[in-house]
Amino acid sequence: LSRNFFTKRTKELKPAVQSAPGWKLFGKVPPRENLPKDSKIIQQEYEARTGRMYKPPPPSARRKNIEFEPLSTTALILEDRPANLPAKSVEEALRHRQEYDEMVAEAKKREIKEAHKRKKIMRERFKQEESIASAMVIWVNEILPNWEGMRATRRVRELWWQGLPPSVRGKVWSLAVGNELNITPELYEIFLSRAKERWKSFSETSSENDIEDAGASVADREASLELIKLDISRTFPSLYIFQKGGPYHDLLHSVLGAYTCYRPDVGYVQGMSFIAAVLILNLEEADAFIAFANLLNKPCQLAFFRVDHSMMLKYFAAFEVFFEENLPKLFLHFKSYSLTPDIYLIDWIFTLYSKSLPLDLACRVWDVFCRDGEEFLFRTGLGILRLYEDILLQMDFIHIAQFLTKLPEDITSEKLFSCIAAIQMQNSNKKWAQVFASLMKDNKEGDKNHSPALKS
Prior knowledge:
- This protein is mainly alpha-helical.
- It has helices at 39-50, 90-143, 147-150, 154-161, 166-177, 185-201, 208-216, 225-232, 249-262, 272-282, 285-295, 299-305, 309-326, 328-336, 342-350, 359-372, 374-387, 389-392, 397-405, 413-422, 432-448, and strands at 22-24, 27-29, 426-427, 430-431.
- It has a two-stranded antiparallel ribbon with strand order 1-2. It has a two-stranded antiparallel sheet with strand order 3-4.
- Helix 6 (185-201) crosses helix 9 (249-262), helix 10 crosses helix 11 and helix 16 (359-372) crosses helix 17.
- The termini are far apart.
- Residues 163-373 form the Rab-GAP TBC domain.
């Protein structure tokens, strides 16, 4: 136990035992008969056997003996061999030097490339921050104080397209969405109190199946309050801030609960939690509720959240008109597989892309949606299809549905918005509103003539 395994080797070595085989790093070797030879003697014997004289490389090419272990395994190729092994030949030493220099040069190239990449990212980030800072000054000092007079000007619309500064985003959203319902913070508190009473009275022993059944009851949509508890944990799960115990969990619960009591005819529908969460991240609690209630009162959102099949089919039909106009090849490809818009559009529209796109990109989509209205939601859908057109043309029904249900996470705002900008929302000199209005008119005439309604 007291044996020291790391004692220094003394100069006076005892002769090796004949019967004890020696072991080396590179395997078993025959037993030694003599003491290890000096490196000079080994070199002389090697030269006599091969007939070649060894010329040491110039001092600059040789690496000095070091007293510490090399930091990199790549540097080991420059180290001299142990004294009991033949020294490297000139060719081998030069080859090792060349290999080492090549590795060092390649590593430097990678470092330079990565450094350039980091600098480029920093320059772009700095440029973006400068742009946001200058835009914020314009929004705060010029646009917001004169909102009604400036909101429709070309300059403001162009600035709006580039994305709203985060510091003014919530304010601009509130102004753009408006408050046609005339909801006040006091009204929010009233419906929040009602929601809390319902939560308190709900039996804790109810099973999840009972909750689902109660939530689906048309007679009492307020019972869908309990569906909220099941759905909040699924809202932006990677952020954790909306999970139980997170800073925004109770806030999201309150906004959704108050809305369910405010609009029992609609109740809570899956997908609402994502919309409310985005608003909560940008607005104060009462303001988020006001914007949420008014946003869901828009014709498109009301049609989807109330599951008005007739209206939803008209939106899908209008979408297909512009789909065929902008992307004819992909349109025919989808048609060949009978792949209808409801398969992918419903999820996008229900959450206003906040579930399908990265959060920062979804917020930029919201920016222009607040500017242009429902038309931009469908234009964004066409922009996504345009962005991935080449990939989608190679896929079958199943893979297309899977791809559009879960879009790639590396999608960037620059690429998507360039594709959205290329989409023309005009068909036979008719814009979105005109095409949709004509579909509504055709449907009304069809009802008068007792014709079947538009089918999917």
